[in-house]
Design a protein that fits this description.
Layout lengths: L7 H14 L1 E6 L6 E5 L13 H4 L4 E4 L4 E4 L15 E2 L4 E7 L2 E6 L4 E6 L6 E2 L4 E7 L3
C-alpha cells in the first residue's frame, strides 16, 4: 500500500465534514500549488426552532477520536475506566485517551452532560473522528 494513501474511514470523515460545511468541490494542483474551494450558495437561514424542555433531554452529542490510534478507556496504570454510561461529566474532563506510538492524546468532553453509551472498546483501533461515545448535554 502506498504510504501517501489516506485510509478510507478518514476520507469518509473528510467527505462528511465537507458536506456539512457546504463545500461542493476541492481542487488541488501541484508545482507551486493552488487550492480552490467551491461552496454551495447558502439559502436564507430559517427561524430557529424552539425545542420544548421535555425534548432537550433526548438530544445527544458524540465525541470522536482526535486522531487515528489505539483507544484507551482507562489510564494505562489504572483498572478503572475514565467514564461509564450514566456518569455525569464536566466540560474539559478527560473521557478517554488515544495512543499513537508513545504519545497519549486526551479525548476531552466539550461540555457537561451525562454519558449515554460507549461505542469503542478498550484497546480497539480507532480512525480520525470515529465515534467513541455519546452523551446528553446538560445546561446546569
Amino acid at each position: 500500500m502506498d504510504k501517501t494513501a489516506i485510509p478510507l474511514p478518514t476520507l469518509r470523515a473528510l467527505a462528511r465534514k465537507m458536506q456539512s460545511s457546504g463545500l461542493n468541490s476541492l481542487a488541488l494542483d501541484g508545482k507551486h500549488w493552488s487550492v480552490r474551494l467551491t461552496f454551495a450558495a447558502t439559502p436564507a437561514a430559517p427561524a430557529p426552532a424552539i425545542v420544548p424542555a421535555t425534548e432537550i433531554s433526548s438530544i445527544t452529542q458524540r465525541i470522536g477520536a482526535p486522531m487515528p490510534g489505539t483507544l484507551l478507556r482507562r489510564h494505562p496504570h489504572s483498572q478503572q475506566d475514565f467514564v461509564a454510561p450514566g456518569q455525569q461529566i464536566i466540560a474539559g474532563e478527560v473521557v478517554a485517551l488515544v495512543q499513537v506510538g508513545p504519545l497519549y492524546v486526551p479525548v476531552i468532553s466539550p461540555t457537561r452532560g451525562t454519558i449515554r453509551s460507549l461505542m469503542a472498546e478498550h484497546l480497539s483501533t480507532v480512525e480520525y473522528d470515529e465515534e467513541i461515545l455519546t452523551f446528553a448535554p446538560s445546561s446546569a
